[in-house]
Records
---
Amino acid sequence: MRWDFEKLTAEAGQEIAACSDLKTLEALRVKFLGRKGLLTEIYASLPTLSAEEKPLVGKGANELRNKVTQLLEEKKNILESSSSSGPAHSIDVSLPGVAPLVGHAHILSQIVEEICGAFEHLGFVVQDGPEIETEFNNFTALNIPADHPSRDSFDTFYLETPDPDQKGRNLLLRSQTSPVQIRLMKQFKPPFAVIVPGKVYRPDAVDASHSFVFHQIEGLLVDEDIKFSDLKGLLTAFCQRLFGDKTRMRFRPHYFPFTEPSAEVDISCYICDGKGCSVCGKKGWLEIMGCGMVNPKVFEAVGYPKGKYTGLAFGMGVERMAMLKYGINDIRIFSENDVRFLKQF
Ligand SMILES: [Zn+2]
């Protein structure tokens, strides 16, 4: 046979492999596949061949054309991807990789974790409870009287589902995390120390400092012989852990139905260290939570023996803690899903 296709294929392969630029590659394409190229020449010779040779040469020529076309295409891709003008889809394994986008916990989740973590260090255990509650757990057992304004439907979301425990009343969306205290006291025998994060709901109009849903963290410690000084020591340790070692703390007398005595907790402003600035409203102090000794009426409501146990309780707003810690002045920004805000934390 006039053509040795095996040899031609091997030679074409070598020439294409040795080629190092697109211009030379184009010259090779013309040499093999062009109008005056080798394959045209082979196909042109077909009519002059014998009947036995014709199919063999035709087959060999087709195979050679396919192989050369494939090699030229592959080489072209390689040469294009290594030049800057190459198409974007080509892969250069020597370039640094593109790191995938990795998200992170929302700022409120981070604060919840930080606060719960601080109390876990002090021996507390994280617990949670349902967001749909009974009026007994949310109000009655917490010594909130039947005519208290917070029970009004203007201050609490009532559901249409009837309360299975109390005829004529409906279930509600908890307006505080405190009902979880009631559930846990019914479930556990003292001593125990729990920290309870969760969402709470109130029909408040949304503005810079109010929302119909927000987060609270509630703590409860019950044992025999727990004193007010335990409460003060515990909260001092917590405040210094969260806001820094130099933080000072003070109690202001207050009233909560479920604790007696009750207090509001202020810390020295971490911006001005008590001198007065715009964050603390020139007061030098920042209000961060409410606390007190568990009211004996609450122990009575959950069926504890009279006079046997004492306990301490405290609660704080998570959004408020985040706003204080990072100087954020609008509660709405936490739920607007603005990535420019969220990725700062
Ligand atoms: Zn200040």
---
Amino acid sequence: MPEAPSARPEYLDYSYDMFLSSIDGEQSEAIRFSDWIDKVEADGRYPFEAARLGAQRPATRVRRTDGTEVELLNFSSYNYLGYGVHPEVIEAAKQALDQYGLGACSSPVQAGTLDLHSQLERNLLDFVGLPGRGVSLFSSGYAVNTGTISAVMKRRHHIVLDKSVHMSILEGAQLSRAKIHYFEHNDPESLRTILEELAPSGRRILVCTEGVFSADGDFGALGEIVPLAKSYGAQVLVDEAHSFGVAGPNGRGVAEAQGVLDQVDYLVITFSKALGGVGGALITTHELARYVNWYARCRMFSCAMDPAVTAGVARAVELLGSSDGDARRKRVLANAAQLRESLSDVDIGPSKSWIVPVIYGPEDRTILLADYLMRRGHEGSVMEFPAVPVGQARIRLFVTSEHTPSQIQRCAAAMHDAAEHFGFVTTDRREEPSQ
Ligand SMILES: Cc1ncc(COP(=O)(O)O)c(C=O)c1O
């Protein structure tokens, strides 16, 4: 007798690392991976890579890869302060497009530096308010980390990473060929033990951490970690990708909130999060910024930021420093607090920020869960191993200043419904460190 078909599709038993590589010349890993996508698509459940049909607003429409279109309540794009759709930002970008054309058409060190780039640099320096600093602009936030770290650190140096830092920091460290060490996440004592051992060598040491960690939405313990690193003669890189513009009394980031902004040697910011654009910047001493401009290979050998985005981001930075920025910061903090509060009976880990992960656990729920939510008009950014530890797969919800209280309520209701349906309701909350 033929076997009854199993109700559970075999494509659920995948993991990202299954496809990483194989040794044959046929590149069978790529073929197997592509087959896996075909199978999920054939079942009408592929939830990834759905094309946006409009701007990244709280309500949006997407076309899934099978051609079906869905209206979505969008909690899965950054645009934390809504500047990606601000009329003045869009107008500045349009004007730049008319005046400067589509692209910068050269490396920034050669013919690619536009007047607009200098304007953006000035706006950033005015906004962060640190005298004697310089700026190095990059075409992505990712490139700020890989370019900067590999430019300033070399084989004989030491890099000490928080265990949870972003891939771009790790990749920058690997590119530099310096010796890499890890301290326990947000744990000054673990960092101290490592620095104690490394400092006597007199070699250059770089400690890297973040303002808001993007998988858990917790704040870096910068108030302790930065002075500790400095006391051992180490330099410090703080990636404020998710916190620049949002955290701190003036929006300068978590380092500002915790009173250590002026001690940070390399302040990394991206334009893709609170500013709703693309690109990034390093803020450091005037001398180091000049050095990185020339020695960060992904900057030197790559085209400068395009005119439209540069002008839009420059305008957004001006707005960040005005009462408009204050009002948006207030709204995003209130919205995030409302969402975290509404999700108090599911596991949101140690989140205290505008990144709120709903941790559902096993990776094999991801496809069905994401598909389930999408069919009901909801989407969060799903994240699973190897981006987070095995068994801690999650839906990351990004809250913005533009969400309304009723949209936040609907999102929380959808998470509760999914939690019931997939059986991951829990009141077993982890300990929350304070900012
Ligand atoms: C901590 C951190 N740094 C850097 C980046 C890269 O930024 P971008 O996407 O702007 O290149 C990200 C992206 O999400 C991030 O989370």
